[in-house]
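ok so for the tutorial part 2 we go from a plain amino acid sequence to predicted structure tokens. step 1 is just haveing the sequence, like this:
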Amino acid sequence: MNRVLNIHSVISCSRVNGPGRRLVVFFQGCRRRCPGCFNPQTHPLKIARLLSPQEIFQRYLLEDTEGITVSGGEPFLQPEGLLSLLREAKKHGLSTVVYTGYRYEELCQFKETPQIFEHLDVLVDGEFIEDRKEKSLLARGSTNQRFFFFTDRYRLEDFYMDGRVELIIEPDGTVVTTGFDVIERV
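step 2 — the prediction. this is what the tokens look like for a chain of 186 residues:
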């Protein structure tokens, strides 16, 4: 079943949010509100943009995209929608990476988690801890966050990025910054 997702924003092509060229979907809503989070605008539990997984792929999927990265906000606050999005990504032959503020052990208590894990290549878990901010080029916010590899598609070394932040100039002239220090529209 396809669900409508409450999405903060979508980036058609990023090279710092996981391996290769990636479609990045930022969910709206997060209860953790980690101090120092670089996506605080995704925290409010309000309606931002309602899109179906099909709409996301029709509007934003570019040729030669390797995979989809899902972040937030908190993707697991919309578990049915997350599952629907990941299923659609697999139909397109994309790899799947999800960032969550939950710990793996917490996720195992949710009824939808086993199905979500079936459609995941990589999960990066754990809340952002400002005092443990990642200083290397590893694609995570803080050093407490762990990588779980559900397939052999990637290894940890695939998550060392060429940089931590990228600037994207959209066709309408909007400048978007993304990565592991900031995401905002200017």
